[in-house]
């Protein structure tokens, strides 16, 4: 069905464009009145009126065809299905829908096979009706648009107006998606907070959501910020110094080699970073922690182990996460430093400053707002990371200042709570939305601060 709608849309749009262009060329050949718009503009106008109805019908098909087919099938089910609860009936219809998509499927159960066959017939009818409506509306739009054509018709203005509406709808779709995400988070979080007090959630120190027993999320916040802190300890100096070298010291040839290599890090899948953390960094951190424990005991400073030296640790996850966000810091900082006016550097050199002094006392302070914005964006990226933490930091919800102990984060718990089979309206599942809302607010604040800092930077030099 999708292919048929696409083929119908392409065929009707092409035919509409040709019909509109030929109609416009007739005006040009008549020689009485010079057309207001070129033939292509008339063709695009007819194409637009031919294509838009098909797109609207296709969107309606995507959103409503499944529900319509199920509603028709539900109304035809025998009275024996009334004993099923709404959830059981929905599960049954899901199974029927999956079976109907399999060619020549037979389960051996007469009632189920009959229902599946009937559902396939309903879907076929819906597909035929949808295709007929799409073609009928498209032809109607085509004939309407063609009748509107005349030598004085402003086809180009109408086409440009249609393009503006399309761009507006794209922007509106992005905004509507964001609003929908926020609304769903807020709605489900309010349902959760109706059962669990807000302050118990934000300030509680015990987290055991899997059994719906304890929902103190403070250990998750602690683990998230601790791992992000270690990540920035790695990424901030390395990324900033790399940016300073590339923008101020590296030759054009060296820059053309090093900068793409650094940016390759941004394209590596996070699961690869997770394997690197689990197989290389975590064992190394544990070995160093064990060595430090033995050293402190041998010197008589401690009677027992000081560091936990767990196989997975917050420090290991933070180090690898820092490596992952180095390209964000280096690339953005490099662009900001290169945007500093050359006149500031020349003025520093004229005052007798060396290159290092000019960079340290003039260039970096001038680029500091942009550098801070780059660091904040990198922090928001680190806070939202999941795979590295799952594989290298562990899943224990605890508050421990020991960097070699295993911790968990907000994102890891969201994944853990929403995987597997559980009731959607249970406190366990709803707590994931509350965590998502907190994570959204945190990253939003970081992004707002970064945008404000960048705005100030631009106002300073533009």
From TrEMBL:
Subcellular localization: Cell inner membrane; Cell membrane
UniProt-recorded Gene Ontology molecular function terms: phosphate transmembrane transporter activity
Official protein name in the record: Phosphate transport system permease protein
Predominant cellular place of this UniProt entry's protein: membrane
Database matches in PANTHER family: PHOSPHATE TRANSPORT SYSTEM PERMEASE, PHOSPHATE TRANSPORT SYSTEM PERMEASE PROTEIN
Source organism of this protein record: Hyphomonas adhaerens MHS-3
GO cellular component, one term: plasma membrane
Gene3D superfamilies given in the database record: MetI-like (1.10.3720.10)
GO term, biological process aspect, one: phosphate ion transport
């Amino acid at each position: 069905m999708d292919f048929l709608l696409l083929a119908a849309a392409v065929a009707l749009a092409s035919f509409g464009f040709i019909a509109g262009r030929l109609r416009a060329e007739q005006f040009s050949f008549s020689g009485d009145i010079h057309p207001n718009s070129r033939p292509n503009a008339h063709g695009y106008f007819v194409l637009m009126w031919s294509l838009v109805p098909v797109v609207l019908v296709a969107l309606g098909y995507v959103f409503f065809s499944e529900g319509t087919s199920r509603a028709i099938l539900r109304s035809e089910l025998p009275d024996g299905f009334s004993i099923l609860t709404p959830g059981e009936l929905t599960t049954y219809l899901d199974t029927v829908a999956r079976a109907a998509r399999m060619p020549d499927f037979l389960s051996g159960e007469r009632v189920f096979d009959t229902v599946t066959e009937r559902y396939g017939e309903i879907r076929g009818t819906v597909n035929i009706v949808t295709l007929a409506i799409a073609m009928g509306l498209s032809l109607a739009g085509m004939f309407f648009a063609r009748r509107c054509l005349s030598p004085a018709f402003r086809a180009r203005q109408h086409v440009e107006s249609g393009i503006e509406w399309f761009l507006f709808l794209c922007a509106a779709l992005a905004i509507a998606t964001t609003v929908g995400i926020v609304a769903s988070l807020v709605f489900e979080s309010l349902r959760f907070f109706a059962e669990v007090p807000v302050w118990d959630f934000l300030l509680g120190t015990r987290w055991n959501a899997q059994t719906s027993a304890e929902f103190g999320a403070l250990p998750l916040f602690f683990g998230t910020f601790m791992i992000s802190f270690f990540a920035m300890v790695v990424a901030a100096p390395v990324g900033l110094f790399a940016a300073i070298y590339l923008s101020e010291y590296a030759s054009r040839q060296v820059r053309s080699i090093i900068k793409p290599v650094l940016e390759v890090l941004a394209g590596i899948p996070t699961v690869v970073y997770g394997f690197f953390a689990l197989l290389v960094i975590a064992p190394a951190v544990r070995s160093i922690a064990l060595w430090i424990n033995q050293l402190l005991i041998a010197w008589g400073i401690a009677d027992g182990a000081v560091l936990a030296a767990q196989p997975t640790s917050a420090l290991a996850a933070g180090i690898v996460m820092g490596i992952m966000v180095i390209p964000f810091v280096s690339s953005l900082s490099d662009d900001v430093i290169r945007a500093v006016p050359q006149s500031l550097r020349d003025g520093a050199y004229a005052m007798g400053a060396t290159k290092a002094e000019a960079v340290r006392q003039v260039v970096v302070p001038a680029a500091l707002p942009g550098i801070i914005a780059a660091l904040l964006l990198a922090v928001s990226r680190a806070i939202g990371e999941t795979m590295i933490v799952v594989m290298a930091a562990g899943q224990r919800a605890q508050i421990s200042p020991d960097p070699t102990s295993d911790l968990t984060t907000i994102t890891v718990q969201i994944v853990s709570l929403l995987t597997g089979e559980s009731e959607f309206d249970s406190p366990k599942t709803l707590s994931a939305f509350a965590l998502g809302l907190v994570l959204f607010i945190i990253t939003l604040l970081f992004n707002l601060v970064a945008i404000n800092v960048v705005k100030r930077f631009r106002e300073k030099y533009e």
